[in-house]
Design a protein that fits this description.
With about 210 residues, this protein is of the alpha/beta class. The protein is built from six helices and nine strands. It has one domain: Rossmann fold. It is globular and about 40 Å long.
């Protein structure tokens, strides 16, 4: 399964430019707002899970954040981001791995995921992801999760997705996480269609 997903995403990022995919954002404003909401400090360790070629890392570097990790299945996606950043890219830890199999090398103050978790349609995959999350996120740290909303698309990039609400995410996470913020976001794709997202921010309390 992992090999199939990896091949899929390598093909996507090898054959399309970063601006030709539905999830492209010129400015990752919703994610930045929530990172500011949890009062992340420049010294905090932040991991962007499924970050791909996202420009969130660009914005965080520009704001002075120094301990940044981007994890993705696709080496091509990470190489796109690294090349875009030039010398600044050397300051980022780039990890090619599957978030359901990854062995986190450190702990993090903020775990950010925009549009990766909703591709985990199998309960066992989600459980494996949460196991890694609990291993890597510090007590008192924050989880920022963006997924397709319940009225969002049921497929993306030709793959099925599992749509979520804050309530469904809270149930999956269990009692060790406190919901701090829930908000909707209508994402405009590069070709003008709208995808309905929901962003949920949790604090780890146990």
């Amino acid at each position: 399964m992992t090999d199939d997903r990896k091949l899929h995403w390598e093909n996507v990022y090898s054959t399309k430019s970063e601006t030709d995919v539905s999830w492209f954002q010129e400015s990752p404003a919703p994610s930045l707002e929530l990172i500011h909401l949890v009062r992340a400090k420049q010294s905090d360790a932040i991991v962007d899970v499924g970050g791909g070629a996202s420009r969130l890392v660009d914005s965080l570097l520009a704001e002075g954040f120094g301990d940044l990790t981007v994890l993705d299945l696709s080496a091509a996606a990470l190489e796109t981001a690294r090349k875009r950043l030039g010398a600044k890219g050397e300051e980022v830890k780039w990890i090619v791995d599957d978030a359901t199999l990854w062995e986190p090398p450190q702990t993090y103050d903020v775990w950010h995921d925009r549009a990766a978790f909703h591709f985990l349609v199998d309960a066992a995959q989600r459980a494996a992801y949460i196991e890694r999350l609990k291993r890597a996120l510090k007590m008192g740290g924050h989880l920022i999760m963006g997924t397709f909303a319940l009225d969002g698309p049921d497929k993306c990039s030709g793959l099925p997705v599992a749509r979520h609400s804050s309530e469904s995410l809270a149930e999956i996470l269990g009692p060790g996480f406190e919901l701090l913020d829930s908000r909707r976001h209508d994402h405009a794709t590069p070709w003008g269609s709208v995808q309905r997202f929901q962003f949920s921010t949790f604090k780890r309390i146990a």
